[in-house]
Amino acid sequence: MPSVQHGYGSPFSAHDIGVHEYVINALNNNISIQQQLHHYVIPLAYPTAIMLDVAATQLVNAHQAQTYPQSLFPGGRMFSYLSRTDRIRTLSALENLAVDLYVLPSPFQNNAGMVKFVTDALNRFSMFGFYSEWPMYGSTRFFPPDDRRLEFFPLTWQQVGYPGVSLGYRDFRGFLLKIWRNGDSE
Amino acid sequence: MKTDPAVIVIGAGAGGPVVAKELGELGIRVLVLEAGPWYGNKKWPEPNENCGMAKESSDPGDLDGTLYRRQLTRLENDMDDPVTGKFRWGAADRRRTPWYRNIPDRALLWQSAGIGGSTLHYYANSPRAFPEAIAEWPISYDELIPYYEKVEATLPVEFAPTTTKETLFYFGAEKAGFSVNRTLDVTSIGYRPQPNAILPPNEHLMDPNYSMEELSHMEGCTLSGHCGQGCPYGPSLEKMAKRPTTVSYVPLAMKTGYVTFRPNTFVTKVLTAYNAGGNQQATGVQIRDTWTGEMEELRAKAVVMAAGCVETPRLWLNSDLPYNPWVGRGLTNHYMDMVTGTFDEDTLMATVGSRTTNPFIGHTSGSRLDYPGLGMIENIGESPGLSAQQLFGFSQSGYNRLHHSDSGLWEQRGRLVGSELEKAMEDYSRTLTLSAITDDEVKFHNRVELDPHIKDEHGAVPRVHYEPSKKSKKRREQLIKIATDILRQAGAKKVHRTDLPANYYIHLQSTMRMGYVVDTSCEAYQVERLYVADNSADYNALGGPNPTATTQALATRTAEMLASKYF
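^ inputs. structure came back:
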């Protein structure tokens, strides 16, 4: 993810905003199932992290990726020892099923569909978290959705030139065609 | 004690409220059951936070435009987040997870629960089907025309106005050799404004004597660009500029005095019995309250399934209705792709007289190129989060950084990361995005089925499988090349191709096909008094055009036929 200047301290990055926390929340609140009396939410973030580490280890062992001497993130395991390109390479290997699916944690073990769905979702969630108004909820951004409050204007929107919620724009340039109500157009 | 409804309609999306309004006008009592919340109704002032003061509403006086405006915040994460957004496929209570669909692939299936259904987030595009595609149906295009006309007059449908991005699209399309197509019945190739269900801009929009705040409370579109977030601008709920069924057919149905809507109600089973003639017929439904889990049985003389292309076949299968090999089969999704052109300021000044395209201004999708035989091309101008996610974060060709494009047509292809992404988003205000939407071939192997292992609180969850046919793949390739050429002709300096995954679902169709599961009146062959009134009844993918107008036309016709047969 890119970095931008803003109110979390400057410059701030996707990591400072906590986009990873957005991704974790999205993964942990994605699926629930019913089993007899119990309605279970299936948290996916932890097994996803293990899956990334397992896949990274396979790539390193196969000499398709190289490790840094230390983790780029405190407490991180194998995935966090890789460069950005090698991390992307790991995601790519997962979505192309070029890893041993047997050694992945449940619910990913021998579950190609789930591996592809979640690996792809990591990308979508990161981008939607970063470029939507989510960071603008500031100190309330991890609250349940109805308890969040807007605290400031997102610098990502400022950076891309999006003015945010709008009442409208005076950019009317006329009509190319009009419908006549007999079904034909003019 | 309340009287039983004569007809139960399952789902208040694009189709259900149309059936309800038409039947209500004939004096037939209708109950519409909707799984999601109701935005803009005084009985649910905090629809996502508690179960409200009532179970149902039938008084048009309950409808409140001010409330609707407060609830539809126009913020893309609050409204469109697939996990927690107000327009998600899930219960009203957003602390809960969405309702699970197992799609074992890279996938994004975009449907909304709620009164209005997926018309809450749709761009309101309402083109008619291509006549050549309807020619394959068991009913004729001519037969549909009066119903199209009725829907177009009711919503109402108009051609979209031109803003900067449409000007650029028309310029590119013209230079690419296409000409304007002045018609609603498309039999030849050409470009035109979207026929859509958005009220034309207010005549004072360009007059600085009127503030934008004033204009947002007046009748007509303000070009705010919030189509995908619901757009609550207008003098009252019924006069909101964008016309989801929440503000069009739902109020009209309530005004008949015969229609009641009940949100927060998930139908888990269609109930049937054998009639004197020995035939199975629908007699009612089993429901579950999404706030309390309470279950009930409701009875009626006829049942209309309008729960959408995934839930309607799922409901059939979970209800143990008679076996039909085509239930859930033949799924089409217009196998889509996107290309994004980036322009420099000088080019834009010379062509459209502005330094930016500002894709977030105006109707989100205001112009189109129809191409019978291949499908269609539309411009799309979403907000930044949705744009980043769909254009640069979702692809079947992986990461641009990891592969070198083998084609000279596109500078970039697939997902972008790091500085590539940063640059692409910095250029956002000078982009034009075109979507290629394919005339998708019906294939038996494409399907909605029950997952054999996974249940949620409503029974076995749906599993969705889709793999485009060779023909669909070839058509999409041709369309995306045409879209790329339009961008180049318009002066794009750089073109990015998303190469969307196959399991990107916006226009789901044809999982309960006419001629296979339902007859030409959309009544099930195997269950009397059971009708279908959503996209799933479509025989095919309409040639490419957006499905809503056809679903609404067909629903109008279905209501008429149901009434004349049973009432």
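The CA atoms of residues 343 and 481 of chain B lie 18 Å apart. The mean pLDDT of chain B is 97.
thumbs up if we can close this ticket
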